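PROTOCOL LOG
Step 1. Enter all chains and additional molecules of the complex.
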Amino acid sequence: MARILYDLTASGDRRFSPYCWRTKLALAHKGLDYETVATRFTDIDRLNDGPRLTLPVLDDNDVRIVDSWAIAEHLEGHYPDAPSLFPGSKAHARFMNNWTPTIHPPLLRLIVLDVYNALDAADQAYFRPDREAKFGMTLEAFVEDQDAHLKAFRAALNPIRETLKIQPFISGDTPAYADYIPAGAFLWAEAVSECEIVASDDPVAGWMQRVKAVLN
Amino acid sequence: MARILYDLTASGDRRFSPYCWRTKLALAHKGLDYETVATRFTDIDRLNDGPRLTLPVLDDNDVRIVDSWAIAEHLEGHYPDAPSLFPGSKAHARFMNNWTPTIHPPLLRLIVLDVYNALDAADQAYFRPDREAKFGMTLEAFVEDQDAHLKAFRAALNPIRETLKIQPFISGDTPAYADYIPAGAFLWAEAVSECEIVASDDPVAGWMQRVKAVLN
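Step 2. Run joint prediction.
Step 3. Record the structure below.
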């Protein structure tokens, strides 16, 4: 097999990394076959001898690429005849790559306990102390007041919501990498959480259904 | 004169509307000559007989266009041989048009009293009660705690800041309408306020200098 994606995995083979989802959408967009290696947090250290990597890691034949943005640029450069991930210009996707961090924090406040509960025991033992040190509080305290976090998350979506009232995709008439970056956040939540992070009549919900069709 | 822009104006002929600045940058980008009509808030009612307009209003020969986005689309459609306002795709600019409202509110908290002080007496008499009713508090109360508002505004700039660490313009190597939309916010502040809304070593400050060169 020529292409291997190391894909962050929870119990029940749930694939939940928002960054890995960006890459899976990009590979599907390009029509490229690949196999995934289910990878737990505590498996990542075994991927290499050097500094700890972050996922996604893509082995494309004899080339290893780390980081979802670097992978997108690699795929665009190496497979120019496949549909472009950056139609028109790369600048739009780059902005979305810098905007999407504004929606991750309120989403994390909604789902981080679901992420924790989805992990197997070895990963839970790594995840809880690591994240609680970062947050400066227990996971349970971090997710308290879900109503406020849901409101904050939905408000943070306004720039894409207003865009999706006008056109079917963030990229315009058809999806591209500018869509896949924020879409990863929704696939992250969907993999581990029952939380209805957007209302069913939200334009964002319809867009996510259209983006997911890229995976079929 | 073929082209007239009704341009929101304070005392001392200061032109401060962020939306009018978007249009002036777009006209300069297209290389189109125009004259402006200095227009106070209290002059706007005299522009037409129907519902109150918002500025910018552009009379392009015998066509009147209202709203900065509609004007940009008009200019792009009617002057296709001039440099494109939407190189690559219009989707990026549309997203910036929906993202920029996230930076206006914290900026308003910094400068609205400066806006008020810049107006002439007739406009002040309209502006204060209108805005205080909207804010539910006095202008003075609205701008209290400038340090917090400055911090919030600068944090809200992160998506463009991170982008401008990588490339000279939001649009990529050269400026276009995706830049002019947020740039209008900075020209708004500059027209009426002494507040240093971004630090001089912020990548956003360097970008603004480059964008302003379009006006020369």
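Step 4. Note key features.
Chain A has a mean pLDDT of 96.
Chain A touches chain B at residues 87-92, 94-96, 98-99, 101-102, 158-160, 162-163, 166-167, 169-172, 178 (CB under 8 Å).
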